[in-house]
Amino acid sequence: MSKVVIPLNFKAALVLLGILVPFWTGASVTHAQSLVTTQHDSSQPIEITADQLEVQQEKQLATFSGNVQAIQGDIRLQAASLQVHYWAQDGDADVEGAISRIMAKGEVFFSSPGQTAKGDSGVYDVDKSLITLEGKVVLTREDNVIRGSRLVLNLATGRSKVSGAPSGSGGRVRGLFVPNKKVKK
Questions:
Q1: How far apart are CA 59 and CA 44, in angstroms?
Q2: For the chain, which residues make up each domain, given as ranges?
Q3: Separation of alpha carbons 94 and 70, rounded Å
Q4: Residue 140 parent element (H or E)
Q5: What is the DSSP letter of 59?
Q6: Is this model's pTM higher than 0.90 or not?
Q7: Mean pLDDT across the stretch 47-55?
């Protein structure tokens, strides 16, 4: 595996920051359901490693493939591949290179101290402010675990929804919630 370190001014690094900041800041979900720590410093550099990076300007697409890892401080994103879709250059400095969509495929895994989220694939739709994680979704925070087939996080409203498998297939959302242990004095 070759190491690819992407400077922050590179479009793909900006795209990655666009998907991870909502997770890292915890702004989109309640404290009890937060996927990440609220103390994360999103101004830290992002290091992306992958076996390969391909940029297709004509398609406004950057693809990292092969054991992709993105690390910012103590936060990590892992996937087999990461596709970053961005808007075409049209002379508008506010839109040029802006992220439109990010797709992570193949054992997608987000982690921060004490918390993880994983699934088979994930999509961040910037225009709709939606993050969707699908396929064997498992959310873990300390000893608490939620399992389902689909997770949708609405960053605009702060609502999240975990769904089971389609009706008739027997799949249901499962949760294991461990009460806090109070220390007796």
A1: 29
A2: 11-176
A3: 25
A4: strand 130-141
A5: G
A6: no
A7: 90
Q: Assign 24 to helix, strand or coil.
A: helix
**Does the pLDDT value for residue 99 go beyond 80?**
no
Burial label for 21, CB within 10 Å (0-12, 13-18, 19+), is: middle
Which residue carries 């391909």 as its tokens?
Answer: 54
Q: How many angstroms separate the CA atoms of 15 and 87, rounded? A: 11
Specify the CATH number of the domain 11-176: 2.60.450.10
Quote helix, strand, coil % in the chain, to nearest 5: 10, 50, 40
Whole-angstrom Cα distance, residue 149 to residue 173? 8
**HSE-up of residue 136 (Cα within 13 Å, Cβ side):** 8
pLDDT band (50, 70, 90) for residue 169: low
Q: What Cα–Cα distance (Å) separates residue 86 from each residue in 4, 18, 54, 156?
A: 20, 11, 14, 20
- pLDDT tens digits, residue range 70-83? 887 887 889 999 99
The residues that bridge with 159 in the sheet, in sequence order, are: 154
